[in-house]
Hints:
Blueprint: E1 36-37, E2 41-44, E3 56-57, E4 60-68, E5 71-75, E6 78-82, E7 86-90, E8 95-101, E9 106-113, H1 114-121, H2 125-135, E10 139-141, H3 144-162, H4 169-189, H5 198-216, H6 224-230, H7 235-246, H8 250-268, H9 273-279, H10 285-296, H11 300-309
Antiparallel strand pairs: 1-2, 2-9, 3-8, 4-7, 4-9, 5-6, 5-8, 7-10
Amino acid sequence: MHISKYSAELCSxxxxxxxxxxxxxxxxxxxxxxxxTDGDLAIINHxxxxxxxxxxxxxxxxxxxxxxxxxxxxxxxxxxxxxxNQIFIGHPNAIYDHFVMSNDLECKLLAISKPLLLEMLFPxxxxxxKTLYLNKHFIMxxxxxxxxxxxxxxxxVSYNIHHQNAPFRKEIIRSLVQAFVYEICHxxxxxxDTGSSQETNQKKILFDKFISLIxxxxxxxxxxxxxxxxLCVSARYLTMVCKEVSNRTAYDWVCEYVQNDVRYYLLHTxxxxxxxSTKLGFCNLSFFGKxxxxxxxxxxxxxxxxxxxx
Length: 310
């Protein structure tokens, strides 16, 4: 899966760059230098001081780590400021604008496609989903030990970025970023929100149980009533809670986990298409083929070939 092209009105591409390279923060006379990109992952080691950046929108997850200075911006109309030893995590499809950077800013930016992020976290996607959506940790302070650990990992990533002809460069960089993401998940899980009301906590607990239930089910393609019955609530109430907690419906979450399983088994196993169809709970091979075409735009065999080429 590749990074989507942005609207020309929001941002533009440097003509010398590949069309799948994300363009992050266009300015009137300057382009952000992207130190690494492979279609699903982009890394900017030093976010450039450019005070008049245009609005931008992407279907990627943003992770920004600030070591010095301040970076202020709006995400979907809400104002955020990150500074020393803080990490910001941005959801896909958010609109970013009103950028202001201090002259001494030192900030690293990761942009990760959602399919790659879910692949990195498989089968532990629930760790990311629960901690981020339950606790709303868009900005997180990191302590000295966490800062040192993440800095060491960052140094390893930067080392491999600069060795462009090294064998397995892409695989090494992705593995290091995967470890980086897991460390962020660990840090987020240590910072639980204890200030919510009892009613809000009950809804978060239900959402937590729902995500865990999907994640731990080998066959995830069930009607909502299946999950709702296990959780002893109505499908309507489950959807309402998911929408309130995560701004996504229960059906959206089931679809995401099913699609991630499809992607994983096609790419990372030698199972036949029929075996994958049966394993994931599809009633027959024809229905599985139709599902893959509708959601990924290719037949299962063609989608497998495409995934293995990337």
